[in-house]
Specification:
methionine biosynthesis, globular, 12 strands, amino-acid biosynthesis, Rossmann fold, alpha/beta
């Protein structure tokens, strides 16, 4: 089934070129079906890029999905046209009475700040709390995962000596868990972060279940509330060239940056990227939608949280 996206969203044309079936609101309203309502709180600086990355992964399912984009009022993006934000994003205040089957909260370029120093901390923690009563399952990514673990469970984050940057090998701790349906014993995930949460802190909190980790990049996936919350520290949604763009950007600015690990063929940027995480990324989002959104959400969406 297709994705139901806001009319004229740039991702529609970009993904049609990849033969991904998407429809806009005008056409979707003629289909007699209860779509899954997914809301995305996009905190990344390049909104259109992140929209496209997430929509690409959400499309890999037979379910019809209606996607909405949320924004916070206390922060104005600098890298996305204001016209785009006005056309496709809605303030949380105008969405707070809605219910959603699923929610995705992205990373943000604020990880080296203390949580309470982030200008929109009060608003985003209000959204975290709101999601518990208005959303069936919430997927927190990268900085949002750290922020959610801190806000809900008091789990600290720690600065890394060097940026965790590259593609890292991971394994599951509960291979029969539904979120890992179809996963290989070893799978790969992109990471790009300066901070971490630690295994020992996760294990101290009885409400948290550590599901996956990496010998090199540490904690990867944590679950809470029986799958109502997933905290994912990596960027499975990244497109093939995202780390390359970050690497060349930082080199151009003269910033201290190592080549992303396990990313380029033969560790040579001129030979291009070896993509090893696409299959895992598709499975992750498909399994989340199927087992923790579609199979858990009530048919009457207004019953969520009751």
């Amino acid at each position: 089934m297709p994705l139901n996206l806001p009319d004229k969203l740039p991702a529609i044309e970009l993904l049609k070129r990849e033969n991904i079936f998407v429809i806009d609101n005008s056409r979707a309203t003629r289909q007699d079906i209860r779509p899954l309502k997914i809301v995305i709180l996009n905190l990344m600086p390049l909104k259109i890029t992140t929209e496209t990355d997430l929509v690409r992964l959400l499309s890999n399912t037979p379910l019809q999905i209606e996607i909405s984009f949320m924004k916070i009022k206390s922060h104005t993006p600098k890298n996305t046209p204001i016209e785009h934000m006005k056309a496709f994003y809605t303030d949380f205040e105008l969405m707070r009475n809605e219910k959603y089957d699923g929610m995705i909260i992205t990373g943000a370029p604020v990880e080296q700040m203390d949580f309470e120093e982030v200008g929109y901390w009060n608003e985003i923690t209000e959204i975290f709390d709101w999601a518990r009563t208005h959303v069936t399952s919430t997927l927190y990514i990268c900085w949002a995962a750290q922020a959610g673990l801190y806000h809900h469970y008091g789990v600290a984050k720690y600065p890394l000596e060097k940026k965790m940057f590259g593609i890292f090998e991971h394994h599951t701790l509960q291979p029969l868990h539904p979120i890992f349906r179809g996963f290989d014993d070893v799978f790969y995930v992109p990471h790009s972060r300066h901070t971490e949460v630690r295994r020992e802190d996760i294990l101290k909190v009885k409400e948290l279940t550590l599901l996956s980790e990496s010998d090199e990049s540490g904690v990867y996936m944590v679950m809470a509330r029986g799958g109502r919350e997933f905290f994912v520290t990596g960027h499975s949604e990244y497109s093939p060239l995202t780390l390359d763009t970050e690497y060349r950007r930082d080199l151009g600015k003269g910033l201290p940056i190592d080549m992303p690990k396990n990313y380029y063929r033969d560790n040579d940027p001129e030979k291009g990227v070896l993509v090893r995480w696409r299959g895992h990324a598709n499975l992750l989002f498909t399994n989340w939608l199927n087992y923790f959104v579609y199979q858990e959400t009530p048919y009457n969406i207004n019953e969520i949280g009751e």
